[in-house]
Design a protein that fits this description.
The protein has helices at about 30-40, 45-55, 70-80, 140-145, 150-165, 190-205, 225-230, 250-255, 265-280, 295-305, 335-345, 370; strands at about 85-90, 95-105, 110-115, 120-125, 130, 145-150, 180, 215-220, 240-245, 280-290, 315-320, 350-355. By secondary structure, the protein is an alpha/beta fold. It folds into two domains: about 25-80, Orthogonal Bundle (DNA polymerase, domain 1); about 85-370, TIM Barrel. The strands form two sheets. The chain has a ten-stranded mixed β-sheet with strand order 1-2-3-4-7-8-9-10-11-12, covered by helices on one side. A two-stranded antiparallel ribbon has the order 5-6. The longest helix is centred in the middle third of the chain and has 16 residues, at about 150-165. It is globular, with a radius of gyration of 21 Å.
């Protein structure tokens, strides 16, 4: 006997604004099974679909041969609706860097970047369409916030990246996606519920989720202190990346406006508490901007601020050569100043690296491609 026609499942849309269609990735496996029963389907259909989506990385209904042929399209359309459409994909670094501009169901634009290295493959994903943090040197911040993304919209960027790696679409042949960084468009902790849902989907064992290691997932924040503290209680030991960009309140108030609510001291202390609770080293993100925050004395001050919480190696500084937006006064630091900054941090015992810059020729900084579109 064939399954009855499934019913469409959609989120409620408060305040008259449409929500993305509900998707398998929005739900835990138990919730998927319940949703299947509500749609008049046997509960095991939920697991079959989960295997296709998270384990086999299949999106074509024709390949899901364990579903009844007569209803395959309807079942897939109900639980795996189209969430986003690729508008443009640009490649750099001999095809090992791929940046995709996506259009969401309501026309909002977001970006993701897949980067293949010799020892890993990392995807940088968005959690919001736009961003409300208003950091003046960031292309996304200048566009303002359009809306939060759903858990499934966030997860789908990763699944598509994993599919591209597995199928050999990325230069270097078939491989495995290993790392996820929430460093694309948006402030992840300002969309806390959906982001935590996405983290759980990414780290749940297949077929409930994608089966990635939580240690290979990095969640970035400009410093929403209450949410950092909440994240420490979730039991998912992701890496926390704090976008600090300045060690003093006077400058950080200008570069990261949320600092007027949560000072450098409060923000760094919350990050330290996260490291102490989770036993996971925190990454301090610091975009190097010429004559703005790259002075040698600021390197000394940054080291002193971080060392004030102990010297047990709780923190690592990741210096980021700024990828400037067109027409911006914010430009990358002189290489000599960058080297001196590194030297001074390391002299005070702070583990420091300079991020490998990818994708400059394809508007690699988040928000540039969407702004151009």
């Amino acid at each position: 006997m064939s399954d009855p026609k499934p019913l469409p499942l959609v989120f409620n849309a408060p305040r008259g604004r449409a929500k993305p269609p509900r998707h398998l990735a929005d739900l835990s496996l138990a919730e998927r099974q319940e949703a299947a029963k509500e749609a008049g389907l046997p509960g095991f259909r939920a697991k079959q679909l989960s295997v296709h989506y998270f384990e086999r990385l299949v999106h074509d209904p024709a390949e899901m041969t364990d579903l009844p042929a007569a209803q395959r399209d309807e079942i897939v359309g109900t639980f795996l609706p189209d969430l986003m459409t690729p508008i443009r994909t640009l490649e750099a670094d001999a095809g090992t860097t791929r940046k995709t501009l996506w259009k969401l169901f309501d026309g909002a634009l977001v970006e993701s970047v897949l980067m293949r290295y010799t020892d890993r493959a990392t995807i940088c994903i968005s959690s919001q369409a736009g961003c409300g943090m208003a950091c003046p040197f960031c292309a996304t911040g200048q566009g303002g916030l359009q809306r939060n993304m759903s858990t499934a919209e966030i997860v789908h960027q990763v699944v598509v990246g994993a599919r591209a790696m597995a199928s050999g679409d990325v230069a270097g042949g078939p491989g495995r996606l290993s790392n996820v960084v929430f460093m694309g468009m948006g402030e992840p902790l300002a969309n806390y519920k959906a982001v935590i849902g996405a983290v759980r989907r990414l780290t749940d064992p297949a077929p409930e989720g994608l089966g990635l290691s939580a240690r290979h997932v990095t969640v970035s924040t400009v410093g929403l202190v209450p949410r950092i503290k909440q994240l420490a209680t979730e039991g998912v030991p992701v890496t926390l990346a704090l976008s600090l960009h300045a060690p003093d309140d006077e400058l950080r108030n200008e570069l990261v406006p949320i600092n007027t609510r949560f000072s450098v001291a409060e923000t760094v202390e919350a990050a330290w508490e996260y490291a102490r609770t989770t036993k996971r080293r925190v990454s301090i993100e610091y975009a190097m901007m010429r004559d703005i925050n790259d002075q040698a004395w600021r390197a000394d001050l940054l080291a002193d601020v971080l060392n004030s919480y102990g010297d047990w190696g709780w923190v690592h500084v990741n210096l980021i050569p700024l990828n400037p937006t067109p027409g911006s006064k914010w430009t990358a630091s002189d290489p000599a100043d960058e080297r001196e900054f590194v030297r001074r941090l390391e002299a005070k015992g702070i583990s420091t690296t300079v991020r490998d810059t990818r994708g400059r020729e394809i508007d690699g900084a988040c928000g540039q491609l969407a702004a151009a579109e």
